[in-house]
Structure prediction request, 291 residues.
Amino acid sequence: MPSVTRWPAAGIELAYRCTADVLLHPDGSPRLRQLLERNARVGALRPARMEQRARAQLLRAKLSTALTEQVRERRSDSRHTAEAEPRDLLDAVIGVCPDEVTDPTVAQLYVLMFRSIVGPLGYSLAWSVLLGSLQSSGSPWSWPVDWVVREALRHRPVSWMVSRPVPFPTELGGIAFQTGDLLSVSPYLLHHDEQHWTRPAAFQPDRWAQPSAHRPYVPFSFGPFTCAGAAVAHELVTEAATTLTGNTYLRVVGGGDTRPIVTNAATPRPFTLHHTPTKTLTALDGAAGRR
Ligand code: HEM
Prediction:
C-alpha cells in the first residue's frame, strides 16, 4: 500500500485484489478481468458529475457485453459441464442456471454476485480501519483486530436493512402481513437497541472479549438467507485489517464524521489514511532523543 490512501475506494480495491482470482480465473479473458477491476473501482466512487456518471454507465455496458460473450463461450465449451468443479464464480453461476436462462441474464446474475461480494467486503474493511484508527488516535490498535472487525460490523453494518416479500398471510408482533407485503429487518437498528446493548452508540471493541454474550448480532443476516460467505468474509476482512495495521501507525484525516452514507449499503464518508511504518517512527524518535 502507498503511504497515503483514499478510502473507502482503497477498501474496494483491496477486496477486489484479494478475491480477483476466484471471481474470474486468471486464465479467463484479460479484457474481462480489466473491465471487472475498472467496474469495482468505479462502483466505489460516487460519480458526481453527469460526465462521470455517463462514463460509469458506458463501462457497465461494456462489462455486460464482454461477460455475456464469456458466458456464451463457456456454455458452448464441452469442458464446462454442470458436473465439473467450478474454477471461479462465473463457472459457479453458470452451473446453477438452467439452460433456459439466457446468457445476458446469467451475466447479470454474475454482476449482482460480484457486487454483493466486493462491495460489502471493501466497505466493512473501510469501517474497521476508520473506526479502529480513530479510536486509537495514531497509536497501534490496543485490541485484537478480530474485536475491531466484529465491533465495526455491529456499529456500522454495511447491510443495514434486509427485506423480503411475505410468502403467505402471517402475523408478527401483533401486526398482520398479507402475501407480498415487504417485511424489512434492520441490522443497524437491532445493533443499536439499548435493551440489548450497553452504550450501543459507542464504538467499543472490548465488548467482544466475550463474543457469545451479544445478541441480536446479524451483520450477515440470519436464518435461511444468512450470507453464504459469512465465515470467509469475516476472515478476509480480519486478515486484510491485520496486514494493514501490522507494524504500522495509521492516522485518519477527514474521517471525523462517522455517520454512514445510506443507500442500498451503509458506507463510510471519504477519508484519507496515512500509514507510517513503526520502524520509521522509532528511528525518528531515536534521532530526536540523540539531539
Ligand atoms: C463483510 C462482507 C459481507 C457482508 C457484510 C455480507 C452480508 C450479507 C447479507 C446481510 C446477506 C443477506 C441479504 C438478504 O437477506 O437480503 C448476504 C447474502 C449473501 N452473501 Fe454476503 N456478505 C459479505 C460477503 C460475502 C462474500 C465474501 C460472499 C461469497 C464468498 C458472500 C455471499 C453471499 C451469498 C451467496 C448470499 C445470498 C445467500 C442466500 O440468499 O441464500 N457474501 N450477505
Notes: The mean pLDDT is 89.
